[in-house]
Amino acid sequence: MKNDLINQSVDYINKSKVIVAFTGAGVSAESNIPTFRDDDGIWQKYNPQLLEINHFMANPADSWKVIKQIFYDKFANANPNDAHYAFMELERMGKLRSIITQNIDNLHQKSGSKNVIEFHGNSNKLVCTNCHQGYAIGEIDLNKDIPRCPKCFGILKPDFVFFGESIDQKIHNLAAREAQLCDLMIIVGTSGEVFPAALIPENAKFYGAKIIEINTKPSNYTNSLVDIFIEGKASRILKEIVNLYKQKYF
Ligand code: OAD
User: Fold this and answer.
1) What CA–CA distance (Å, rounded) separates 86 from 10?
2) How far is the centre of ligand 1, averaged over its atoms, from the C-alpha of 106 (Å)?
3) Which of 2, 22, 33, 35 gets mutated to test ligand 1 (max ligand atoms within 8 A of its CB)?
4) Cα separation of 126 and 50, whole Å?
5) The domain over range 34-77+123-160 is classified in CATH as 3.40.50.1980
6) Which of 31, 40, 133, 165 has the fewest other C-beta atoms within 10 Å?
7) Residues 6+ apart with CB under 8 A from 184
């Protein structure tokens, strides 16, 4: 059964002209980065309010304490897994146009993928909430309770999207355009619960794309817009798909 679905997915990939991937935390789960909403997810352990923008501005030390634990201690040591590498190979073979990722862990880029649209920003950068100056993570001492702007002493915030913040308009438009252009979208490891990101696959479907989904369990998309659902871990399944594509068509 699973082999049939893998064969079918490979045929879709072969027939499609414009393929776009849409990824979430599940693609990095096998790089030892916990997801958000699974039983062992980040929001089981930490209060998501800590990443709400008004809460952050009112309680920066509390939020920063947890931000460092979740994002900087864990992410710094993470490496891409076979799922990231499979997408990189598909791009190199000229079969993957772009990856729209909700992840802020940089692992798609670390694996060598070039055209990555970071819908929720990136944890490698910080931005001053007062003067809006940006900084690379290495420029700032994160051991301080509240990292502050060297120029104006404003509170620094990781340059990813907090709850209550809007998506950068350019990034949003770019992702929406990719969704409209593609004739195949491959969704991997996202629950589809966070908006507006969750609308990207809806957009792709609306404009006629076929949808393949890989997830360890059904998501919000599985029964509404997915053509092929493959249940299982991203690394093994994507590797099998890309290897079979190479064997048959490359
Ligand atoms: P979630 O934690 O909501 O969903 C993770 C999904 O990955 C679930 O559907 C799991 O079943 C699936 N999954 C877990 N392990 C997997 C594996 N090895 N292979 C394949 N699938 C697996 O994470 P997201 O959907 O990414 O926002 O969450 C969206 C946003 O919510 C995140 O970008 C984050 C969070 O608040 C920001 O950081 C701004």
Assistant:
1) 13
2) 15
3) 35
4) 17
5) no
6) 40
7) 12, 13, 16, 18, 19, 20, 209, 210, 211, 212
What pLDDT, on the 0 to 100 scale, is given for residue 77?
Answer: 82
**Is position 108 annotated as part of the catalytic site?**
no
Mean pLDDT within 184-188: 98
Secondary structure, 3-state, 81-92: CHHHHHHHHHHH
pTM: 0.97
Residues whose beta carbon lies within 6 Å of some atom of ligand 1: 24-26, 29-30, 35-38, 41, 102, 104, 120, 160-161, 189-191, 193-194, 214-217, 219, 233-234
- Ligand 1 atom at minimum distance from 25 CA: 26
- DSSP state, 166? P
Mean pLDDT of 161-166: 96
Give the per-residue pLDDT at 1. 64
Ligand 1 midpoint to CA 191 (Å): 6
Instruction: Report the CATH number of the 1-32+80-120+167-250 domain.
Output: 3.40.50.1220
Instruction: Sketch the domain layout of the chain as residue ranges.
Output: 1-32+80-120+167-250, 34-77+123-160
pLDDT (tens digit, 9 = 90+) per residue, 109-119? 999 999 999 99
